[in-house]
Structure formats: C-alpha cells, structure tokens
Write a structure and sequence with these properties.
It is built from no helices and 5 strands. With 83 residues, the chain is mostly beta strands. It has a domain of 39 residues. The strands form 2 sheets. Strands 2-1-3 form a 3-stranded antiparallel sheet, with no helix packed on it. It has a two-stranded antiparallel ribbon with strand order 4-5. A hairpin with a 5-residue loop joins strand 1 and strand 2. It is elongated and about 60 Å long. Pfam families: Zn_ribbon_8 (PF09723). InterPro entries: Regulatory_FmdB_Zinc_ribbon. This is Zinc ribbon domain-containing protein.
Length: 83
C-alpha cells in the first residue's frame, strides 16, 4: 500500500496518508487545523544498492568528454545490473 504525503494549504502541516490502490480518490483532512484544502507533496526517495558482483563499484561514475567544439557530454554510470 502506498504512503502519500499531503500539505495543508491553510496551516502548512504535512501528514502521511496510507491508501490502497483500489480506493480511488481519497478525502484528506488536516490533522492540525481540520482544513480540507490539501495538496499532494512529492516525497523524497531513498534507496540502498549493494555491491555489484560484475562491476565491483559501489557508487555512480561520472565521465565527461568533448562532443563538439565548445560542448561537452556527460555520462552517469549507475552501479547495478547492466544490459
């Protein structure tokens, strides 16, 4: 079940709401001021990736090279499974 964060437009309080995918639209009321004007907040994401047996790298690798005169291209390689 996903947990969504909502911010009250009246008092600014942020609260989490646990919902099921089958509920559709959910009515949300502020826990502090009982306001009904709530907006969904984009939640931060955190994840941990283990060491990859094939690459041996724990962290992303950034490579920058010249693509054309005056321009550069940057590649970000993330650890984990590759195709």
């Amino acid at each position: 079940m996903p947990i969504y964060e909502f911010r009250c437009t009246r008092c600014g309080h942020i609260q989490e709401i646990l919902t099921t995918g089958s509920q559709g639209q959910v009515s949300v009321v502020c826990e502090q001021c009982r306001g009904e004007e709530m907006e969904r907040v984009l939640s931060r994401v955190s994840y941990v990736m283990g060491r990859s047996a094939s690459s041996g790298a724990d962290s992303p690798r950034v490579t920058t090279k010249s693509c054309s005169p005056g321009n550069s291209c940057t590649t970000l390689e993330l650890p984990g499974h590759s195709r």
